[in-house]
Amino acid sequence: MSTPSPPNRLPAISIELFGVPRLIAGRPRVIATGLTLGELAVDLLRREPALTAGVLDPATGWPLPGYHFVVDERFTRDPALPLHEGSAVLLVASAAGG
Predict the structure, then answer these.
(1) What is the pTM of this model?
(2) Distance from chain centroid for Cα 75
């Protein structure tokens, strides 16, 4: 039986990077926090600023056109999408799944 996260703690979520995002970051994943996908994107930008080189908007952290998040096996560009500890998040190029 797992213990839920305290309400004042943001969930830590592993974001898998594929294709160009992985090449730019130089690593396969980044741990970031957020209650929504938009919050997670902002924290991803803070933790991996190199991704502003054509993948993330430098002002918002949101993926530029041509990139998508995949959350729990569903492509999405919804910044209001709620996340939880254990959410499976990928950042991929739209073409050929990354």
Answers:
(1) 0.86
(2) 12
C-beta of residue 61 within 8 angstroms of C-beta of residue 67: no
- Condensed to tens digits (0 to 9), the pLDDT of residues 41-88 reads 999 999 999 999 999 999 999 999 999 999 999 999 999 999 999 999
Whole-number Cα distances in Å, 83 to 14, 20, 30, 44, 64 = 12, 24, 16, 14, 21
Of 16, 14, 20, the closest CA to residue 94 belongs to: 20
- Work out the burial of residue 3: count CB atoms within 10 Å of its CB; fewer than 13 is exposed, 13-18 middle, 19 or more buried: exposed
Q: Report the pLDDT value the prediction gives residue 69, as an integer from 0 to 100.
A: 96
